[in-house]
Specification:
Elements: H1 6-43, E1 50-52, E2 59-61, H2 62-78, E3 82-86, E4 90-92, E5 97-105, H3 107-112, E6 118-125, E7 128-136, E8 141-145, E9 150-152, E10 155-156, E11 169-172, H4 177-183, H5 185-198, E12 201-203, H6 208-217, E13 222-225, H7 230-242, E14 246-250, E15 266-270, H8 277-292
Parallel strand pairs: 3-5, 11-12, 11-13
Antiparallel strand pairs: 1-2, 3-4, 5-6, 6-7, 7-8, 8-9, 9-10, 13-15, 14-15
Length: 297
């Protein structure tokens, strides 16, 4: 008598198919990131014209636009059944695979010659991130993840952290000028001061994707952001979670409570095993305050 459960074999087959599909998309993202990274690295620390989008704190260069076009062409040639949302060019295509692309996350750093910026590329199917790549061309660090594991330059990575926040290193962009407008300057600076006094080290390097990837690799213990977009974080969320870290999304009153984590405008990114009460409390206060000020539809 054959006691095998056919559903088990079917589930295994589907899982393997999904993994193979994920790996295929990850390879595309890796190829696109490296292809864009080469001309970006060549342009880094050269003379360049800087333009501004929303305000003087929101910069863009021709290299952002060129890199996004290169990535778009690479993706659509490799996988025609694609659609892409890029920071610079908006939504393009109508395929079933939705890509989220930030050609340079950390443009202000890139434009000034500060070596903390990256290329971020994620693939989403049926609402779930199935492939993610964050590439730092200056250090030649390629963080990537399929649906099973996360890697740094092809080697499996595991997130780690210290247990006490007083010994931990935190990366956060908070506060920036728009946080002053949203939360009030005195309140925002008071919250930042509390983090500085509590954590061993607080750094503000200026790239959400690369910051979260550093948490995934165990380079830092935690990261936090309160004004991100899907193209900033989609890839890094998968890399962090599959490295054993924890990604806690914050809606900040801007998206529905059941939104996918990569669509939420705020986040806490924790290394494996980390849970820092002061950071949780500050983040909750920011979230509650902004939610309370959000107009009711």
């Amino acid at each position: 008598m054959n006691n095998a459960n056919p559903a088990v074999g079917l589930r295994t087959s589907v899982d393997e198919d999904g993994l193979n599909r994920s790996r295929h998309l990850t390879r595309i993202a890796e190829g696109a990131a490296r292809a864009a990274g080469a001309p970006l690295l060549a342009a880094f620390r050269s003379e360049m014209t800087v333009d501004y989008k929303r305000d003087l704190h929101d910069v863009v260069t021709i290299h952002d636009r060129n890199a996004e076009a290169l990535i778009r062409d690479f993706i659509f040639e490799s996988e025609p059944n694609s659609a892409m949302l890029g920071e610079e060019g908006g939504q393009v295509g109508e395929g079933e695979i939705q890509w989220y692309v930030d050609p340079i996350d950390g443009t202000a750093n890139f434009a000034r010659g500060l070596a903390f910026w990256c290329v971020s590329i994620a693939a989403v199917e049926q609402g779930a991130v199935v492939a993610g790549v964050v590439y730092d061309p200056v250090a030649d660090l390629l963080f990537s993840s399929d649906i099973r594991r996360s890697y740094l330059n092809g080697k499996v990575i595991a997130s780690k952290s210290v247990s006490e926040e007083s010994r931990a290193t935190l990366i956060t962009g908070y506060p920036v000028s728009r946080d002053f407008r949203l939360d009030g300057r005195v309140v925002a600076l008071s919250r930042f001061g509390e983090l500085v006094e509590t954590f061993s080290t607080v750094r503000r390097p200026g790239s959400a994707a690369l910051s979260i990837a550093h948490v995934a690799a165990g380079f830092v213990d935690a990261a936090a952001g309160f004004g991100v977009n899907a193209w900033d974080v989609a890839a890094a969320t998968l890399i962090l979670k599959n490295a054993g870290g924890r990604y806690q999304p914050l809606t900040l009153g801007k998206v529905p409570a059941d939104s996918a984590d990569y669509l939420c405008p705020g986040y806490l990114a924790y290394g494996a095993g980390a849970d820092y009460p002061t950071l949780n409390r500050v983040a909750q206060a920011i979230s509650d305050g902004r939610t309370a000020r959000t107009p009711t539809p």
